[in-house]
Amino acid sequence: MDRRAFGLGAMATLSLSACASASPRFLTYDGPEVTSLVINKSARKLYLLHHEKILKEYRVDLGFAPNGTKTKKGDGRTPEGTYLIDRRNPNSRYHLSLGISYPNSDDIAQAKAAGVHPGGDIFIHGQPNRRKERKRAKKTPDWTAGCIAVKNDEMEEIYSMVSRGTLITLRP
Fold first, then answer.
1. What does the pLDDT look like over 133-151, one tens digit per residue?
2. Domain limits at 157?
3. In terms of pTM, does the model score above 0.70?
């Protein structure tokens, strides 16, 4: 990816609105197509891109052990690599969620060689719906089990902008 995509002035104007007949948490988006997502774990940033142009940028929380890539179930790490957004869940136990196609065949092969389970169910999601979990999330950065978390209003934007099949790259 061209580094110019992360330069100043690359932000696009969004056109988001609440859908009159649907729940207020479902927004519509009629701007440029989101062609990929990039997560820069060390900067705690999520970028929504239209080709090489940044449309939107968000601060993220990661897994509770954020350094390094996910290698096994329960390690608290957020994966690194290239995947797809493979599902959308409006009824998540977190405020909306987009599934990431982790583990891929390489992840599975590496876990098998190490004699461990690779884990799964990695999502981009909002804050927990349960009060007890919300309190924990507010106290600690990088509180997820390996997912990428954003604020609820940000998740509403992301959910409206990102389609199944969109490429996502998670970088160290």
1. 766 666 778 999 999 999 9
2. 3-171
3. yes
Report the CATH number that the domain containing residue 16 is assigned in CATH: 2.40.440.10
Nearest to 66 by CA among 43, 92, 86: 43
pLDDT at 10 over 70: no
The total number of structural domains that make up the chain? 1
Distance CA 102, CA 99 (A): 9
Q: Supply the pLDDT for residue 7.
A: 40
Q: What is the DSSP string of the chain?
A: --GGGGSTT-PPPP-EEE-TTS-TT-EEE-SS---EEEEETTTTEEEEEETTEEEEEEE-B-BSS-SS---STTS-PPP-EEEEEEEEETT-SBSSEEEE--S-HHHHHHHHHHTS-----EEEE-SBSSHHHHHHHHH-SS-BSS-EE--HHHHHHHHHH--TT-EEEEE-
User: What are the tokens at 17?
Assistant: 């609105």
